[in-house]
TrEMBL record:
Name this protein carries in UniProt: DHA2 family efflux MFS transporter permease subunit
InterPro entries: EmrB-like (IPR004638), MFS (IPR011701), MFS_dom (IPR020846), MFS_trans_sf (IPR036259)
Signal peptide: none
Cross-referenced CDD domains: MFS_MMR_MDR_like (cd17321)
Chain ranges passing through the membrane: 26-45, 65-85, 92-110, 122-143, 155-174, 180-203, 215-233, 245-262, 283-306, 312-335, 347-365, 377-397, 487-510
NCBIfam families tied to this protein: efflux_EmrB (TIGR00711)
Keyword set includes Hydrolase: no
Entries under PROSITE patterns matching the protein: MFS
Family: Belongs to the major facilitator superfamily. EmrB family.
Main location per the UniProt record: membrane
Amino acid sequence: MSLPRTGPPSPAAPAMPRPRRRRPGAVLVVESVAVFMVMLDNLAMNNALPDIGRDLTVGVGGLEWVVASYTLVLAAFLLPGSIVGERLGRRRLFLAGLAAFTLGSALGATADSWATLVTGRIVQGVGGAALLPSSAALLRQVFPEDATRARALGLRGAASGLGLALGPVIGGPLVERFGWHSVLFINVPIGVCLLLFGAFFLPYAPPCRSRPWDLPGQALAAVGVGGLIFALIQGPSEGWTDPAVLAGFTAAGVALPALLAVEARAEEPMIDLSFFRDRLCAVAALAGFSTSLALFGAIFFLSLYLQYILGWSPAGAGLVFLLASAFIVVTGPVAGRLSVRWSAFRPLLIGVTLCPLVLAGLASYGEHARYAEYCWVLPVIGVCVSLTFVPVNVIVVQRVRGRRAGMATAIAETLRELGGVTGVAALGAVLNSRMRDSFLRQAEAVLPADQAHALADRALAHGPAAALAGPGAGAVRRWFHTAFLDGLHAALYTGAVGTAVVAVCTYLMVRTPAAAPADEPGGLVRPTA
């Protein structure tokens, strides 16, 4: 595939050096593999969580931070990353983000404490936040035609969804054969190779220094989102009235409304609120958020369920997700073609409708479920991913053009990542709260109240191994399994109701034709598909 000819170069203008960097296919491969690796690490650690809990002595709340520290930082820095890419050059930022992601992977791979592991995950998140918006912008530069751009972004979206689904598949066997550190170490040689190929093939993207920094918006977004996620994760273990938890909710309650007010008045905002005034862009962003919430929550909980309750090995638990991955491979390109040939909202509506079905389906199984009974959920997950993420990318690119395109892509990516971290944090809060109540109810039937509370605290704070030692371990194990299932079902049903509401809202917002926004340089444009 080659770029369209633009005519012979002017005699006064020298030919572009390094023509190999203008090979669209090579650029697409480098960026798709990089995006795949970044998205893979959203969920690749999930099947390692029980081993991490045992090795580092952390409970469900600490394990949530192993996942959330990556997705939270990734979400918090995506929008600033789009601004940095415009000012410093997208090629330069893509390579810098890839280098930071590789460095964070190396730090996590050598971690011998929970704090070091979380620090490595934070560095990974910063690198991923720099890489993702830059990759989308570079693809728009390399593929200028609508049809080829839509197909390229569809493949990038499929690589993103495939990375999410393959995370547990790849992570499980690595954990069982080489230990949980290997899940992070495998990124290091891949990252180095991508850096070499990227430096050779990626096209030059000149910086655009006209857009100023939006420091108040960046600070308010980080404080608001960070405070909310912190409170949701720490609330069940520390107590909802704990001063730190209340401080987190207070920070979110103050910072997030202030963010909207600041961005509405800013001359060059980090979050252009006109993106959400375009109803079709708002629908796409909402669909990406809710699908990530369902997907991250389902895979996070399913990984723990398979190992804690059903007794699967990490490799076996990872292979359970192979069927979902296969359906992403098959349906991803199909979703891209459908989005180009017909309206992208048709596959999108199907995708968001499948989300509550996935969560409610998982909630119907208990302690003795067999693979043959729940395997139907896995292809539904794969179809859901492809029919949502790919159309979302296409819709945003078609609706927003020019210099705001990077910002719009970053908003969509940010909301998708926020959906993931919210799925783990909010549904995890439901799980932990219900789990604690169920555990206490069983323990208090045979133990004094103070002993029952101490046992529950150990199980939630330091993992089940801390609460299952000593005499009576069999009874405590049964209490833990019952409590975990009670919390799991409550979390999944809560997510199913929430995503069902989003699916209905999406249908209602799409069925009424939207007024086409005016074509203007750098702004929103009429959709072409």
